[in-house]
Amino acid sequence: MNTLLLIILSLLLLAVIIGIIIYFVKREGYENNTIKVQFEKLPTGSLYHYGHFIHDCLLPFYSVYNKNPNLKYVVIQNDKLGNFKKIFENIYNVTVLYDDNKSYNHLTSILIYKYYYGPYTKFQKNIIRCIKYIKKKLNITKKIPKYILLIQRGYSKLTECGDNCNTGSKRRSITNHTDLRNALHKKYGKMFKNVILEKLSFKEQVQLFNDAKIVIGQHGAGLVNSFWCQKNTVLIETDPRHTLTFKHIADILLLDYYYIKNLNTKKSFIVDIPVIMKYIKDKITNKKNTYTLFYR
In the list 13, 104, 140, 234, which could disulfide-bond 214, CB 3.0-4.6 Å? Predict the structure, then answer.
């Protein structure tokens, strides 16, 4: 009986030893392909908001990925990507893990600095390389820009957002958007596209802005897609302009940027449709002009 008990205990001990060995072998292989990152804290917004996800996560992470092309796992500390986790995983060919239970404390965390609101001179090379990488990854075809895009703010149901699930569309939109849309459609027909970006996939958004000749939109997440525009694309931003983010993006990508003030108070965002229509016409015909409502 004692001999049998000794054999059983020996087998159990052997199983434990084998289990420990397998654990550490797997862990070593796992950690060789794993990076733990912490994205610099944002003063406003979160990474589960589209604009901040692109601007403060997807693009800045490229500098890390470029140095670790065999990466398989990315552990994110103190943040969530919400709806955009799959986009991140597909672009960088990785699996995203959240360090909710502090299970990855043994990994050294890499701090990824955000771009703030520009200027982007310091990050220009990394941004341009990342844009090229993303377009290649998504098989974006390079076409001659021809479309006039008007961004209509839609609604997106956010996930993993805690108590901060508000989107920009809840806070502001162009008051006379319908009138502007109708005027552009009547004038330019198939050249014009009124777009609700929340209804499009990430690839569709990249391709759409890659093909755009003129983009019109209110300050907000949708204009972050100007990163995908080609050189000399006209970018028109309307009030309320809280930062110079999109002007700075235009500066490094050589876009033709203009900002238009509203005709009304801060409580309603009414744009001057005749002025915008004349301005677009002059841009299409390459006629030079100046307008009191437009600022570089």
Answer: 234
Domain range holding 189?
147-295
Residue type for position 129: R
**Dihedral of alpha carbons 172, 174, 176, 178, sign:** negative
Do 188 and 278 share a domain, yes or no? Answer: yes
State both tokens at 60: 């800045």
CA 97/CA 36 separation, integer angstroms: 9
Tokens representing 214?
A: 């003129």
The structure tokens listed for 193 are 């596209």
98 and 156 co-located in one domain: no
H-state helical runs in the chain:
2-32, 50-53, 62-67, 85-92, 124-137, 168-171, 177-188, 202-210, 245-253, 273-284
Answer yes or no: do 151 and 267 share one domain.
yes
- Per-residue tens of pLDDT for the chain, all 296 residues: 567 667 776 777 777 676 665 555 444 434 568 889 998 887 777 888 899 999 999 999 999 999 888 899 999 987 889 889 999 999 999 999 998 877 788 888 888 888 888 889 999 999 999 999 999 999 998 889 989 999 998 765 555 545 555 555 555 788 899 999 999 999 999 999 999 999 999 999 999 999 999 999 998 899 999 999 999 999 999 888 788 999 999 999 999 999 988 776 566 788 889 989 998 998 888 766 655 555 55
